[in-house]
Amino acid sequence: MKAWPYLLAATLILGGIIHIATVLIWPGFIMDRLVSGIEEQVGTGVIAHAPRATSESRTVVRPSPDLIYSICAFDVSKAPLRISAPVPKDTYFSLSMFGDNSDNFFVVNDRQLLKETVEVILVQNEDQVEGLGGAPIVVAPSDKGVVLFRTLIQSEDRFEELDVIRQQATCEVM
Fold first, then answer.
1. Which segments in the chain show pLDDT lower than 50?
2. pTM
């Protein structure tokens, strides 16, 4: 009897198991390392303003040198988080939120915002909404994750101005 059909079947089964494990486990592992690293450096609910991206930068996955990034780790199991940032004029700006499995569950950019400041409250569940104020409420799909702010540098002449504006962003535990 030939062994190759059994080896082929075993290889396909093992490949399937490795693929499924990678898809289910890898994103959580990456996000856990990212959140833990941010918490060790600046804490939870505190914004870290990343230096300008270079070819060596890896604070943010696949960073662009045309963008400046700020990032905040959150843990809404303890308390809601108030997120606020001024929106710079005449350039791209976005606020994105990622759960502990790396899924992007919220994003807003400068074209969608009608005010000069974006403000949202991030909560663990809808039961926490009562008495939190007038800012829009976002329910996180997981207790931990990250909030990422991006600002486009359209001209080197504006870098200093945009950097000052991004330093005004806040992630405050309520």
1. none
2. 0.81
